[in-house]
Amino acid sequence: MLGRVSLLPKSVARRSISSRRHASTKTIRDALEEVIPAKQARLKQLKTEHGQTVIGDIKVEHVVGGMRGLKAMLWESSVLDPMEGIRFHGLSIPECQKVLPAAPGGKEIIAESMLWLLMTSKTPTEAETRQLSRELAERGELPEYVVQLIDSLPQSLHPMTQLGMGVAALNKESKFAAAYERGIKKTEYWTYTLEDSMNLLARLPALAARIYRNVYNPGKPIPGVNKDLDLVGNYVNMLGYGSNHDLTEYLRLYIALHGDHEGGNASAHTAHLVGSTLSDPYLAYSAALFALAGPLHGLANQEVLRWQLNMQKEIGDNVSHDDIKEFLWRTLQSGQVVPGYGHGVLRSPDPRFMALQKFCETRPELLKDPVIQLVKKTYDVAPGVLKEHGKTKNPYPNVDAASGCVLYHYGLTQFKYYTVIFGVSRALGCLTQLVWARALGLPIERPKSLSMDVIDTLVKSP
Ligand SMILES: CC(C)(COP(=O)(O)OP(=O)(O)OC[C@H]1O[C@@H](n2cnc3c(N)ncnc32)[C@H](O)[C@@H]1OP(=O)(O)O)[C@@H](O)C(=O)NCCC(=O)NCCS
């Protein structure tokens, strides 16, 4: 395992890894070790040659407007273009779908191949992907004290609160925190951060599945981690839907696509900020999960389904476009947001929404589902209504407009749980960034805040 590797002389460590893997297959750590020096050199060059180069202006609207559009953060794994959507190390979603390996017997991209791409900027081979699945599965069981903690929580405690608590509690196991306490060199930080990140990613499915079991199916046995399955295959199995191949494929796609959305969104930024204090990955990601639990961010996927089901209840199955328009106006006039629409950066339909819609289009049973039809029909009219309403800068759907209805179709109907699935997914990007922040030696974050008095003074004499 990585942590043991970094504590042992390198030659011994290498032998112990290679005895457990195909001789010619790299681990994700090997792949990272290859790419880190070049990135470190590039950052050093940027700092020395362009440290004083101006790349944007700070306006009062940035300070009072949630820093929208302010270029103020380094995030390597993905970049979000307002019109085109997300690219992961330069690859668009359709390109990822072409080149990233799927699970055995599956077609959709999986968390492991996306993680490899995010971490290393390279496309993994099939063998590297399988090995990563194996490595995660081997680390996947929850420590008993975390099981006891989760089992002791009230059934009515929101699943996201439980997830954040479980992740924070895992920090008792942190290799980074233990090594830091012992005293390690800065150059070693990333190795222990990677070790913790791998353990955390590996354990998220068992943690999230235990929360699901406790809240919705108390007492039902949960299968152990199957070493031959990929991360999401195991997750779906532990949720109790392992025999549903289509749901498994959907969740593979959803979790891979939703893994990273550049750095400025609230959860990613929170993980980065907390991690910049050298908090361990468990604490940093737990903080991110509580940002994700807000209704303007990750909780939107539960809100979308609640809203669409209310629409269905009020209007019935046979809904016309005009009925939907009327319902949309009622939502807006009551001062609420239309969940699943709008975005802080995007100014066009979210390609993740389009990819999930495409998934539905290949399955006739999904196309017949009334809730999925409602989502599609809402997409036909909502941008027009939101444009007419005139407030939203982006009247188009984001990924959450589509994500819940497919889960609902396959019987995963407990929508208060949906953000937990997002929480399993977003760890891919947030933990990648933590590893890179330490490999690149990024400093603690400390932007300057201003009072209105100071802004007034600056405005008068900038
Ligand atoms: C995502 C979101 C938080 C982005 O917020 P933002 O960057 O401030 O968005 P905008 O700049 O377009 O907001 C301008 C105005 O339009 C409103 N607006 C934005 N999206 C809206 C929506 N879906 N429905 C109604 N009004 C919306 C905002 O509330 C804001 O109103 P205000 O001026 O009265 O404060 C926002 O679009 C939203 O609340 N969407 C619904 C929740 C959701 O789907 N979240 C998941 C995001 S991935």
Automatic annotation (TrEMBL):
Cell location: Mitochondrion
Gene Ontology molecular function: acyltransferase activity, acyl groups converted into alkyl on transfer
Chief site of localization: mitochondrion
Transmembrane intervals: none
InterPro entries: Citrate_synth-like_lrg_a-sub (IPR016142), Citrate_synth-like_sm_a-sub (IPR016143), Citrate_synthase (IPR002020), Citrate_synthase_AS (IPR019810), Citrate_synthase_euk (IPR010109), Citrate_synthase_sf (IPR036969)
Any one GO BP annotation for this protein: citrate metabolic process
Pfam families: Citrate_synt
Catalytic residues as annotated in Swiss-Prot or TrEMBL: 297, 343, 400
Keywords: Mitochondrion, Transferase, Transit peptide
Keyword Metal-binding: no
GO cellular component, one term: mitochondrial matrix
Family as reported in the entry's similarity comment: Belongs to the citrate synthase family.
Name used for this protein in its record: Citrate synthase
